[in-house]
């Protein structure tokens, strides 16, 4: 692949920054984060003006309203970004954590957490990702290359300049935070092949973006995102819990990856439970797409097509299927799930344990909403994304997931025999 | 990509096996491993006959001697394979390890180690990898798809059949261990794209194989291998230690990835130290390719070309360079190293600490041989390979690196607000 010399220069600067960042002290990184938080507030007007340009351009292009909303920054939003930087200051720095042991020959092996190096973030229209990702990467000692969507380019330019200048003034290495100002697709395609410069690439956004990165990148990827999450209401499930958990999982924030898409109902309780659940969902305006049995019980349900199973609606739509037992439920999840978050509603101990053990997903719940799969709600304090892959990180990724290990070994003239 | 239906069938069988293997008990997996060890001995003759076919075919094809050696099995070799299976029995099973915490709302989160799922191993001519990889995958609860080199196909067919049958007789799921009997390149290329069937692909072998897999695979890869390892003999290095560590790192087993390729010498001690080192290496038959200063000191050194820096000789050849100080040494390692294993010989505390902190590699040593970078020597008991990437696993990979985490969450009607 022919790389753009400008992009190689950005990669090299990131590598050089990463080399120094790797042994920056927590105290110095925190000083930089506080300065970044202050700088955002100091440049509020400038940020809002740039954002206004992006928003106007988006409206002119006829971009859909939900996207324009995600793009739009307000004064309150800028204060929230600033606050979130201060929260990152309070998170424990994983760099330098570790354990050590001594081998029988006296060799001391110290397994130490170190930064990954250079992290590339590829995301879409939300400008706050620029600030979040930069903060988490800085705190964990990584240089970051940010590539946001073209719709947010003016906002991102100002945001990244403001925080990057503030961090450099506090002594952080130049180019610790870089934005790809050129949003040409060509550049992302090159970025995905920059092994030797980029240590990991994290796509955040829609399924299309994520799949492109997974398929095309030769740089190691952390796959985030897509969640076709299920709830199984067991024969021995408590109906009140079932209604409240399914309702919460589906409606609390339908546009996010840990929202529920499908409810599976044990056939022994379907005719009793489904009307209770259905009424609550229907009243709230949730469209129900059911299997034949569901439709026979709920007259207002429409018939699900085969592609409904496996669809991440990200909307007030739910698919519903009556199943024979927990085995059929688990088979369905195995076939259509994306290994994100799955929950069972049951009072039966053994069924609960089977579900926990046998369902393969980042987060498996008993009697709880799938919406808990979140770095903040897990107690990690911040989140760079939710990994749906198994390698390196699974589930909500906090600062620790932005690090790797290094073995430091203390010898005294040790040779192998 | 169009997938071969046979390959998809293999992938599906592996997935189904993995689903059951995930919750096989340690006791049952150990029983299977012991049966596999017995079966290898019981089928010794059959294995030797199949191996003889491979060896004869290789000799006829004029394949080079070192490769034929790696391919050849002996009765002793089969006993060693059998013993190594028994050793895996003694290793701790990482599956089910974990930690848990309780959130302020009472939600109990249990972070549990679980198998990766389906592991694909792509390797070259050594038939013992077939047995090693199968054993480590089984012990860690993973289904494995083995794809060995075509040169070893007859040996691999018998080996995989013998151990697979033995494990199934002990109740392990069918298809826990599968060999790709078709060694067509097409199949490997498809295997590398089988996301949804294969959770991770681990290439083991030469740099060519590894780079192909890294570049072409859309399945997550663990990169193993290439080690351009350096030793830096500091101004304050002890000469005896320097000679013994460099000699050991270079000559103990030159064909492996943790062997030394380059020695860097502080200019203040070069004229005194190099003759001591050079003589010992020269006597042993090691070719020395030096920088100008090295050649001026050692008349028997040949002049290094620029491509010598960065070359993994895997042979009795060493490159040698005189550097100004530890900074120049670290810059050289930064430029030419592969982040595998690096060592410094010094008595100076601060220089040692700087080297440990600032050199970015899986294993960084003070006064010890790079040859220690090995699962067994680190105390992990067994090794599936040495990772030179930063994601998921770094350095020697044992059983734990063949697992991922899963969150099991115990709620009591928990919903988010």
TrEMBL record, chains A, B:
EC code(s) of this entry: 1.2.1.41
Cytoplasm as UniProt keyword: yes
Cellular component GO terms, alphabetical: cytoplasm
Record flagged with keyword Membrane: no
Record-level Gene Ontology MF annotations: glutamate-5-semialdehyde dehydrogenase activity; NADP binding
Class in the EC hierarchy, top level: oxidoreductase
Subcellular location: Cytoplasm
Entry keywords, A to Z: Amino-acid biosynthesis, Cytoplasm, NADP, Oxidoreductase, Proline biosynthesis
Pfam families linked: Aldedh
Catalytic activity: L-glutamate 5-semialdehyde + phosphate + NADP(+) = L-glutamyl 5-phosphate + NADPH + H(+)
GO biological process, one term: L-proline biosynthetic process
Domain of life according to the entry: Bacteria
Residue span(s) of domain Aldehyde dehydrogenase: 11-284
PROSITE patterns for this protein: PROA
Pathway: Amino-acid biosynthesis; L-proline biosynthesis; L-glutamate 5-semialdehyde from L-glutamate: step 2/2
Family: Belongs to the gamma-glutamyl phosphate reductase family.
HAMAP family attached to this UniProt entry: ProA
Function: Catalyzes the NADPH-dependent reduction of L-glutamate 5-phosphate into L-glutamate 5-semialdehyde and phosphate. The product spontaneously undergoes cyclization to form 1-pyrroline-5-carboxylate.
PANTHER family assigned: DELTA-1-PYRROLINE-5-CARBOXYLATE SYNTHASE (PTHR11063:SF8), GLUTAMATE SEMIALDEHYDE DEHYDROGENASE (PTHR11063)
Protein name as catalogued: Gamma-glutamyl phosphate reductase
Record organism: Desulfitobacterium dichloroeliminans (strain LMG P-21439 / DCA1)
Lineage of source species: Bacteria, Bacillati, Bacillota, Clostridia, Eubacteriales
């Amino acid at each position: 692949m022919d790389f753009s010399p400008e992009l190689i220069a950005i990669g090299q600067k990131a590598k050089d920054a990463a080399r120094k960042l790797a042994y920056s002290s927590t105290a110095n990184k925190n000083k930089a984060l506080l300065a970044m938080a202050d700088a955002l507030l100091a440049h509020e007007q400038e940020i809002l003006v740039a954002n206004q340009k992006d928003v106007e351009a988006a409206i002119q292009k006829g971009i859909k309203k939900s996207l324009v909303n995600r793009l739009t920054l307000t004064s309150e939003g800028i204060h929230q970004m600033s606050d979130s930087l201060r929260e990152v200051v309070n998170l424990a720095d994983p760099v330098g954590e570790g354990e050590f042991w001594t081998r029988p020959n006296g060799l001391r092996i110290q397994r130490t957490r170190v930064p990954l190096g250079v992290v590339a973030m590829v995301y879409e229209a939300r400008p706050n990702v620029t600030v979040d990702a930069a903060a988490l990467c800085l705190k964990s000692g990584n240089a970051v290359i940010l590539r946001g969507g073209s719709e947010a380019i003016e906002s991102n330019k100002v945001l990244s300049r403001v925080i990057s200048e503030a961090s450099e003034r506090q002594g952080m290495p130049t180019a610790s935070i870089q934005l790809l100002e050129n949003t040409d697709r060509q550049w992302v395609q090159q970025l995905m092949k920059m092994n030797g410069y980029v240590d990991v690439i994290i796509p955040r956004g829609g399924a299309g973006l994520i799949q492109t990165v997974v398929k095309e990148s030769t740089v190691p990827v952390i796959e985030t995102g897509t969640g076709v999450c299920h709830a199984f209401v067991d024969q021995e499930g408590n109906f009140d819990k079932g209604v409240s958990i399914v309702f919460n999982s589906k409606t609390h924030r339908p546009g996010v990856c840990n929202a529920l898409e499908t409810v599976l109902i044990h056939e022994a309780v379907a005719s009793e439970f489904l009307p209770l659940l259905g009424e609550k969902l229907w009243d709230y305006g949730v469209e129900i797409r059911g299997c034949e049995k569901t439709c026979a019980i709920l007259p207002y349900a429409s018939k699900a097509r085969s592609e409904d199973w496996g669809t991440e609606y990200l909307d007030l739509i739910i698919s519903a299927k009556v199943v024979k037992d927990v085995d059929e439920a688990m088979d369905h999840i195995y076939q259509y799930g994306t290994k994100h978050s799955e929950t069972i509603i049951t009072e039966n101990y053994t069924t609960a344990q089977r579900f926990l053990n046998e369902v393969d997903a980042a987060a498996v719940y008993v009697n709880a909403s799938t919406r808990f799969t979140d770095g903040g709600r897990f107690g990690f304090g911040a989140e760079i994304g939710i990994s749906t892959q198994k390698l390196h990180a699974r589930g909500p990724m906090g600062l620790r997931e932005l690090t790797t290990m290094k073995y430091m070994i203390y010898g005294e003239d040790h040779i192998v025999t």
